[in-house]
């Protein structure tokens, strides 16, 4: 689940590069024989409103999304919606006895929450620390409040700052990560590619 900040401060190059990066990610995963069949993606944006731009579905069925920047930063409401959607999806899999990978939430923002976010942050952090979700907090630009973004993330995976506006490199890393996970067995650990190229601090 991509949970993306489209507030007014993202206008200009950031929102344009974000759109290109997301579309590149979709295209690259679709070109991978295994990942294209295994990966489901949903996209939730938060700005003037919280919108489920892309309901969670097979990546092969996703239409190319475009984003526009306006409004404030209701990050708490967006994260609550993402958790609800992903938990419902997991319940569907459990009901039908389908093995699944724990979902990933990629939370990208260039600012800080402007709504009541503490409950959502605590819930997401708890899910991550219980290994029920993988959470990646990504800070964009020089004005992102990484301290507040860290409240959404588990202690062992603090947020990372995107070097400059390297959305293309980040989403390339994400597609490579999806390719590695898609050929693994659900429930087993996977060593992810190095984040060199998009991150100011590598893992």
From TrEMBL:
GO MF annotation terms: transferase activity
Record's keyword terms, sorted: Transferase
S-adenosyl-L-methionine listed as a keyword: no
InterPro entries: Tellurite-R_TerY, VWF_A, vWFA_dom_sf
Pfam families for this protein: VWA (PF00092)
Highest taxon listed in the record's lineage: Bacteria
Domain VWFA: 1-181
Protein name, entry field: Glycosyl transferase family 2
Taxonomy of the source species: Bacteria, Bacillati, Cyanobacteriota, Cyanophyceae, Nostocales
